Amino acid sequence: MAIFLTKDSRVLVQGMTGSEGARHTARMLAAGTDVVAGVTPGKGGRSVDFGERTVPVFGSVAEAAQETGADVSVLFVPPRFTAAAVEEAVTAGIPLCVVITEGVPVHDTIRFRALAAGGRTRIVGPNCPGLISPGQSSAGIIPADITGAGRIGLVSKSGTLTYQLMYELRDLGFSTAVGIGGDPVVGTTHIDCLQAFQEDPGTDAIVMIGEIGGDAEERAAAHITAHITKPVIAYVAGFTAPEGKTMGHAGAIVSGSSGTAQAKKEALEAAGVRVGRTPSETARLMRAALRSA
Question: Domains in the chain, start-ordered, CATH in brackets?
Fold first, then answer.
């Protein structure tokens, strides 16, 4: 089992004919993803040869979805065009829209997230590595060869820490790993993923990766207390970050005691979540949790 993305997902890539889109489409295909279409305005009717697979290019998401049955869109689109591209996918009724792009203006994200709210489209990102259900499908840029299928779910703000925890626990494997992105506003939250993993019979335990800034982890802790019964192990990046300084992600800024790694750790531990001080310690805690489950 998996959440959001399965072997039956049919993926289209907005921006597939660009250099980044083409490179990562090839990687997704190599991971077994069923990439059925690319979308680039003005280039409809063309196709791109990826060796064993030739993928048709359409001029619009609506046309691509109608012709191929695509139900997932992955965006490799420059920041200034991202809002329009997401809105096109939402209007076309694509159930899952994965926004890889970094540097999307926050007001653009607020606008397209509001458009998707209450509808059938789930947005993952922006500024995220996407998601992968190992052995089934990959939508984004997460390396497919660092882990295998298993029964751990992972939700993370950080791309590189996603990869590290997947590698640390590669012998156990993952049902799905979701990189939700580190921007101040994102489409899918820790809470969304925690609840989906709770309901997924193929997931036995959950790794949650957070980082300084905002209160997403504290809100996730409250949700865990109320709704999650599966073991949750967490890692929070940024214990040594200086106060008041933006660190990497736009959302990673600390003001006073709000948003600090220590405050997040305390909230999670109060919810019964064990928190590692390093990724390696987090992996050890997960192994211990599975042994005692």
Answer: 10-124 (3.40.50.720), 146-292 (3.40.50.261)
